[in-house]
Amino acid sequence: MSLNTSDPRQIDLALAGLDARRSVPPKQLGEPAPDPDTLLRLLQSAVRVPDHGKRVPFRFLSFRGDARHAFGERLAARSRERDPDASEAVYEKDRSRFSHAPLVVAVIAQLGPDEKIPESERFSTASCVCFALLQAAQALGFAGIWLTGWLAYDVEVARWLGLGEHERVVGYIHLGTPKLDAPERERPDPRELLTEWTPA
User: Is 122 within 8 Å of 55 (Cβ atoms)?
Assistant: First the structure.
């Protein structure tokens, strides 16, 4: 059955999932999180992204339960090493980064030399996975947010995560059940962003 694109109601219904996307801060994410089987099902949808050359330039790490808190302790210690003069509030913020959402998934780009596919395209593929995972989670009634911060770029954190020489964290996807409805925010108007190229 084809969609009647002249009917605004059908269009709105078809795009409702995309139009409803919201980022929900970690402090507003509670239990339940996707269980291991549900997470695998979400990832099954999330990996259906554009992938020039079929390189599959990404992999995942998940954080649950006490592992989240243990990772937070390491982050706080590393934060103190990076900036010994920061306030205790800064270290506490880093300590609790993974303690709010019940599940965090690190999306890791696998890059390195490639004779055909530029690194930027492969990184873009991994980035698409982050967004697709958020969309899949929201479709099942969960919520999440894509975060990076210094811990996505720190060499010591990369060592803890077991990243290879040519791997990089694309994002930490915090997932759970929303404790409240995330408010809408102002979105850009595509009419102000779109121009049509014409030959000179």
Answer: yes
